[in-house]
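User: Let's play a game. I give you a shape written as tokens, and you guess the letters that built it. Ready? Here's round one.
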């Protein structure tokens, strides 16, 4: 069992920054990839970014490339999502999730464990 807890959401102005954290506990994570997803009101949940626990592979969705950066701190069992130059369209509930294996994927059904989500609201 893997337990994931997100934090760091809140209210930001357009052009501002937030850093989300995803703390993992439970099983060892050396064989897991961690992904960030988001769901805006009235829209389907979408892939944002993912990182292998080794840090050897990273992927970002085209919509956030150059603005968001995923990273990890293994010693703290934490994955971060640094969000810069925020836009109103980034407003959503952000979720982190764990997928078994070192292969990155944007496919949600490949992620077995999910956090409860953290709200990010960007005002114009």
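Assistant: Ready! My guess for every position:
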């Amino acid at each position: 069992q893997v337990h994931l807890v997100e934090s760091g959401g809140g209210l930001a102005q357009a052009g501002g920054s937030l850093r989300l954290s995803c703390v993992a506990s439970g099983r060892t994570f050396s064989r897991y990839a961690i992904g960030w997803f988001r769901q805006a009101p009235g829209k389907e949940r979408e892939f944002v970014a993912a990182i292998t626990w080794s840090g050897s592979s990273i992927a970002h969705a085209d919509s956030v490339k150059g603005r968001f950066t995923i990273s990890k701190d293994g010693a703290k069992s934490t994955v971060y999502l640094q969000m810069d130059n925020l836009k109103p369209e980034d407003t959503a509930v952000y979720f982190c999730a764990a997928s078994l294996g070192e292969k990155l994927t944007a496919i949600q059904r490949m992620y077995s464990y999910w956090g409860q989500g953290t709200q990010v609201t960007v005002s114009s």
